[in-house]
Design brief:
Layout lengths: L1 E6 L3 H16 L3 E6 L3 E5 L5 E5 L22 E4 L13 E4 L11 E3 L3 E4 L3 H9 L2 H5 L15 H4 L7 H16 L11 E8 L10 H14 L3 H15 L11 H10 L5 E4 L17 H12 L3 E6 L7 H17 L8 E4 L8 H9 L3 E2 L18 E5 L4 E7 L4 E2 H5 L10 H17 L3 E5 L8 H11 L1
Parallel strand pairs: 1-2, 4-8, 9-10, 9-17, 10-11, 11-12, 12-13, 13-15, 16-17
Antiparallel strand pairs: 1-3, 3-4, 5-6, 7-8, 14-15
Helix pairs in contact: 1-2, 2-5, 6-7, 10-11
């Protein structure tokens, strides 16, 4: 049992982050005591202890969730290689989100029974996992998302490294320096793939006017008359009942690829369309979609919820959509122990959307990535429990942070590496290998309607292999 003594302020927040880091991430039992002190003491057997400063949680209550509580930029960096710690990190230079000045002689001090570490590991991890800055900063993009450019990780150039994992590894290195017999949770690297079903069929629910619009795009945007001809032919075949020729009906191929790698794919379906075609053009009640749900379930893959465009601030609509999905699945004989999914277009409001999903009864969300740039929005490649910053409640909902969405890397509106296939592949593999370093989860979103380009399909196979 590890005993933790902490200042008696922000007790709900401290209990949450201690639980996530020690219990969920490391698998260690802890006992927490709140006392009248200015720092955190992690006490091991005998009189051995690790002393960590209070940073974020030393914020006066009047400044909580205010600009004045944000990390001071530019961040300072600590050179881990200057110590005798053997900690698993991406680089030896460690950004200090909250903590003491690394230039101070006592930033890292070690004796036989005590280690003083100047990183505010708990406040920094809390800042990243709860998406604290997204409540404080007002910046939003054209679809009301918090933009990557406003994030600390982007501004300080650590979006491509899971800084929370690195902090946990530094903490672990300190723990085993003082208690070499301590055992942590054994983890195994996993590739976790999901597919947002925005467009299950290109033509099954498409009318003639949309076909004309598509053909116009084939000719004037994609500069291909043969492609327009093919679109007309496929539309006619699908409308006559040959649904297998629909280019977006790639579900069997996706499941074949996953099964060869012993991976369970998760398919997230839109069940309502209050925003019209901005959501989708299909109904979850349609026989074609019901057949698809049954097929996915029968092959042992997962079905989940892709909440519609307007749900991110709407708890009632979130619950209604989840209830509808469960009703349709129950009618088709589909039962699952766990239910999760993702917000449409990655629209998210912290902490509102966490609470919406929690109250609707969903087990996990996997939305939290930036649309414009891949990486570690939450600073971690582990699933973790969530927290509502305004109600100060530890939620039942888990977050599986999304590391890579394919269109973020490939599309010209985002990173635009599609034309540079080698660069695109390497970008994704670097993040995958980073997750593997920490025995984490590499969460990958690849839409079913992107399995129409053989080059992208081949890239996908290389990534999940």
């Amino acid at each position: 049992m590890i005993n933790i003594e902490a200042p008696n302020t922000y007790q709900a927040e401290r209990k949450y982050i201690f639980s996530v880091i020690f219990a969920e991430f490391l698998g260690l039992e802890i006992n927490i005591n709140f006392t009248d002190r200015q720092n955190i003491s992690i006490q091991l057997d005998g009189d051995r202890q690790i002393v960590i400063p209070d940073g974020l949680f030393a914020t006066p209550s009047a400044d909580w969730l205010e600009v004045s509580s944000l990390p001071q930029q530019p961040l300072k960096n600590w050179d881990l290689s200057s110590t005798n710690l053997t900690a698993l990190t991406v680089k030896s230079q460690i950004p200090i989100v909250y903590g003491a000045d690394p230039a101070r002689a006592d930033f890292f001090a070690q004796s036989q029974n005590q280690i003083e570490l100047g990183i505010d590991i708990f406040g920094s991890a809390f800042f990243m996992l709860t998406r604290y800055e997204e409540v404080v900063k007002p910046e939003r993009d054209r679809v009301d998302r918090f933009p990557v450019t406003a994030s600390l990780a982007y501004q300080e150039d650590f979006l491509d490294r899971p800084i929370v994992n690195e902090y946990v590894e530094i903490l672990w290195a300190c723990l085993i320096q003082l208690a070499p017999n301590l055992q942590r949770k054994v983890r195994e690297f996993q590739v976790v793939v999901s597919h947002d079903v925005d467009e299950p069929f290109r033509y099954a629910f498409s009318n003639i006017s949309r076909l004309i619009k598509r053909c116009a795009g084939d000719i004037y945007k994609r500069h291909s008359l043969p492609l327009a001809t093919k679109s007309i032919q496929q539309w006619a075949q699908v409308k006559s009942g040959s649904f297998d020729v629909d280019p977006c009906n790639t579900f069997d191929s996706i499941m074949d690829i996953s099964e060869k790698q012993n991976i369970k794919s998760a398919f997230y379906f839109i069940v309502d369309r209050p925003a019209g075609l901005l959501d989708c053009d299909y109904s979850i009640d349609h026989p074609l979609i019901r057949d698809l749900l049954r097929k996915i379930h029968q092959r042992g893959h997962e079905i989940g919820l892709h909440t519609s465009y307007l749900t991110y601030q709407n708890p009632d609509r979130t619950k209604q959509e989840f209830d509808l999905l469960k009703r349709v699945c129950l009618e088709e004989g589909i039962e699952q122990q766990h239910w999760g999914g993702r917000q449409h277009c990655l629209r998210w409001e912290t902490p509102t959307t966490f609470q919406n999903w929690n109250d609707a009864g969903l087990d996990y969300d996997s939305t939290l990535s930036f649309a414009e740039k891949v990486g570690f929005r939450c600073g971690v490649c582990y699933e973790f429990s969530t927290f509502n910053l305004t109600t100060r409640k530890h939620l039942n909902l888990k977050e599986k942070p999304l590391i890579v969405m394919e269109c973020t890397v490939l599309d010209d509106r985002y990173m635009n590496l599609g034309a540079e296939e080698t660069l695109a592949l390497q970008c994704i593999l670097d993040l995958k290998n980073c997750c593997k370093t920490f025995q984490g989860e590499f969460t990958l979103l690849w839409h079913n309607n992107r399995f129409t380009d053989p080059r992208e399909v081949e890239m996908y196979k290389q990534i999940i292999h």
